[in-house]
Amino acid sequence: MTRIEIPTPHGPAMAELHCAADGEAVLMLGHGAGGGIEAKDLVAATRAGQAAGVHVALVEQPYRVAGRRAPAPAKQLDTAWLAVAEELCDRFDDLPMVFGGRSSGARVACRTAAAGQAVAVLCLAFPEHPPGRPEKSRQAELDAVEVPTLVVQGETDPFGCPKPGPHHEVVVVRGTHALDADLEAVYRTVHEWLAKVLRPLT
């Protein structure tokens, strides 16, 4: 594991790199609004990525690197994410990039997939709507993604469950928004999906 600091227009971000022996792609994973890269589902997805022959970069947004707890505005999150993606693309010799993350990080991955030329998107605990506010749906962010997308969602997630679409599948596992009740299911689902979507590219 290697930690590197990456400059962005909104301050330095941090990427924790977990490299595979013969990596054929790079999976970038972002954290939730109030949590960090140590979240258990992100750790499970990291293990799954490495096992599938993928380099994994756990990305810490600049506001967390700076010690702030309140998340930055969406545009700042997206801009910082794309700056990190550009740096990692150069570092890994233009390998295919998969964008991903949990909760807020999943939303960032969806919003930036086209601009960052991601080949696929992984969403862990996509926050379909604020708790108790189903009318505030964020389904459009997911529907806008035009590359293969996997959503892994807890069956009792108070943030709701997005609907599947032409480019994205939704897998429901035991647990809540934390996705920590069945980490083996998270691992297995991510591993199988990565192997499937990356096979045509390698």
Report on this model:
It holds the Pfam family Abhydrolase_11. It comes from Amycolatopsis thermoflava. This is KANL3/Tex30 alpha/beta hydrolase-like domain-containing protein. With 202 residues, the chain is of the alpha/beta class. It has helices spanning 40-51, 62-65, 74-91, 104-112, 139-143, 183-198; strands at residues 2-6, 13-18, 26-30, 55-60, 97-102, 120-124, 149-154, 168-173. Helices cover 32% and strands 22% of the residues. An 8-stranded mixed β-sheet has the order 1-2-4-3-5-6-7-8, sandwiched between helices.
Main sheet record? 8 strands, mixed
Order of helices and strands: EEEHEHHEHEHEEH
Number of strands: 8
Structural class determined from secondary elements = alpha/beta
CATH architecture grouping: 3-Layer(aba) Sandwich
Roughly how many Å apart are the termini?
Answer: 24 Å
- Quick check: average pLDDT? 95
Indicate how many domains the architecture comprises.
1
Q: Could you list the spans in which at least 5 consecutive residues all have pLDDT below 50?
A: none
SSE topology:
Blueprint: E1 2-6, E2 13-18, E3 26-30, H1 40-51, E4 55-60, H2 62-65, H3 74-91, E5 97-102, H4 104-112, E6 120-124, H5 139-143, E7 149-154, E8 168-173, H6 183-198
Parallel strand pairs: 3-4, 3-5, 5-6, 6-7, 7-8
Antiparallel strand pairs: 1-2, 2-4
Notable features of this structure?
alpha/beta; 202 residues; AB_hydrolase_fold; NSL3/Tex30; KANL3/Tex30_Abhydrolase; KANL3/Tex30 alpha/beta hydrolase-like domain-containing protein; Rossmann fold; 8 strands
